[in-house]
Amino acid sequence: MRSRKDPDSLEIIVLNVKKNLSFWLLPDFLSPKLLRVLNLSKIYSNDGILYPIFPHPFMSEQDLSSIDPRLQKQVTNAKRAIEKGNPGYAVPICADILKRYPGLYEVRKTLRDAQKRLAGNSGGVKKFLTKVTSAPFALGSAGRIKKDPSKVIESAEALLSDDPSNVAAHRILGQAAEELGYHNTAIFAYECVRELEPDNLDNLKALAEQLIEVGRNKESVALCDSILARSPADGDAQNIIRKASVAQSMEKGKWEEEADFREKLKDEEEAVRLEQASRAVTGEDALRELIEDGLKRVEKEPENLNILRDLTSNYRKLGDYENSLLWIGKARLLESGKSDVALEKLEIQITVESKEVFIREKLELIESEGETPELRAEIESAQQDLFETRFAFAGSLVERYPNEYGYRYEFGELLLEKGDLDQAIAQFQVSQRNPKVRIQSLLNLGKAFKAKKIFDLAAEQLSSANSELKIMNEIKKEVMYELADCYELKGDRERAIEEYKKLYSADISYRDVAKKIDEFYSNAS
């Protein structure tokens, strides 16, 4: 049991570590009459003194039924608005409630549903190679999560409001939620990652761990079984299954008379290692202990892919990318590692992630100490290096998996960014066959043709995308603006202004559309 003063008030937080419950304690000068007015019913005893208490909204997950009925009604109205095709109404309502009650995972689900509908088809784009904009949320920011997880959740939500398909933001949201004990929120975040990256085994294992925390042990076992079907030597998944099986047995009352589950295992040394490895390890000391244990084990079994994978993962969690890449490199040299596609993708992710973290650290240095020409040059060089790394990886993926249209789309994006328009067009023409990236492919085809000043072909692609989008969301607005701009560049001002008018009537604040409409009517008069 521990307590600390809240710097902003005379109240005290008391955290019951064993049960993971937190409460506000009211100062003792409050009168019994006032306590009755506050309708406080719980009592906490400390050193023989009774204190009235009530749950603090930022320290535990809550059901929707636990908040003010008026707020409950707002959530109900938000859900109705989504069902009626007006998700824009729901977003600010849910976001405001979550700022006050971040543990309301049901509201977070509603918010995400609204954001996805607003984003339209862009939400289904697979983001295998993370962009530089996600750099603040790489796993290297573990210290930031531990220091202020609530702030990290707010930052992750800010990214998701712009792009609900941002895998890095979902992942960091889940990790921060874990730190706060928001297990259902963490599960939801990892499930969102699962939708976007179904083959991300690290995410599936994190999800399986959290399912155990809320007693969904059968689901955890089933999930790990699916992981082992793809990667039979995955020790983490095996450990999670063992942990879930233990929890399942405890639920059935089979081990109620046992003092410790280690007694059920024949090998005491293996029991200690298994219990430690199966915990949701986040502390630096615990990670270093696991790494030390792994280094000893790898000396005895240098070709054990499972041990090498564990070392890679633990160094990554620690933010030590140099050693993480060292061990995954050794794993990839093994015969079993050369053919492991999941391991190959993990190596790509860690490489990109390490470069993103480096850039983020330099940007933070500018924020704290100011910009210098040398520091700016170093950042620009690192950003170019990151782009080249992503470009090389994306190109190799397309070369080896030509029928994976998601890889073609991402490579096309990089080609477009690089200015290689013909090659970008070739990739988008193929990737548009995938319904998940069709609209974005057509949009980028339009941009590429427009950059080549082939305006009739650009308008054709953009018109196709516009006709397929039935709901006015952000992606449709972008398509309409690009189409109008294309007509304007082509010299067809009449058709351009018609598109601008449609956009103006839907969202007067979108880009410079209001200025364009004002200029049109000023010139007309």
Keywords:
single chain; 525 residues; mainly alpha; five-stranded antiparallel beta sheet; 25 helices; 5 strands
Task: Describe this structure as you would to a colleague.
The structure is a single chain. By secondary structure, the chain is mostly helical. 67% of the residues lie in helices and 5% in strands. The protein is built from 25 helices and five strands. It has helices at 32-38, 69-83, 87-100, 105-119, 142-147, 149-162, 167-180, 183-196, 201-213, 217-230, 235-251, 268-277, 284-300, 305-318, 321-333, 335-338, 341-369, 373-400, 405-418, 421-431, 438-451, 455-468, 474-490, 493-506, 513-524, and strands at 2-5, 12-16, 21-25, 42-46, 49-55. The chain has a five-stranded antiparallel beta sheet with strand order 1-2-3-5-4, with no helix packed on it. Helix 9 runs antiparallel to helix 10 (217-230), helix 14 packs antiparallel against helix 15 and helix 20 packs antiparallel against helix 21 (438-451). The longest helix is centred in the last third of the chain and has 29 residues, at 341-369. The protein is globular. The chain starts with a strand and ends with a helix. The model is unreliable at 1-59, 121-140, 254-259 and 278-282 (pLDDT under 50).
